[in-house]
Design a protein that fits this description.
mainly beta, single chain, 0% helix, elongated, five-stranded antiparallel β-sheet, seven-stranded antiparallel β-sheet, disordered N terminus
Length: 198
Amino acid sequence: MSTTLALVPAPASAAAEPPAGSVKIELVAMNGTGCPVGTVRIESTEEHFRVYYSSYTAYAGGNQPPSDSRKSCRLTVRVAHPPGFTYGISRVDNQGFASLEEGASGTLRSSFSIFNRNPPAGRKNTIRGLYSDVWRFIEQSDIPEVPVKPCGERSNTTLATELQVDAGTSDPSKANLLSLDSTDGSLGTYYFYYWQRC
């Protein structure tokens, strides 16, 4: 995360949130093989916003083409909130599903930028087979401060994710997958706000 703009201390308890129902989010742009047009939905509360995907799965092995082994998505969102507040993102919670044979692996990269800049590459999170279950990776700032937008600034926020599957030494006739799909409504990515009064 960028540390070149406004920084505020992140206390143990969150700052006061805006009134209920006053925070809205708009999906401004989407791009990538993991999020074709019409396959992403976003909902927001005062605590967090959540991204639902319906076509975000990487495959390797079996009859899958090599191009399916890597999927990525970049979303641009705009958060509308009452005057007198600004925000940062203190935590990202990615939840998905994986089915990996022995010898295969899957990786997730996740990052964001709230300052109209390109997100950093993001930390690599890896799952190794044999594995067939839901997974969860939580990324939380390891510094005692959370970057926040300067008060009054209306810049967009960019969210970047990438899934990659490597068949490795697994049986080449069997498919492996790593997914962020939210088809049952329980998976996807949560971005938790850190609110600051101006």
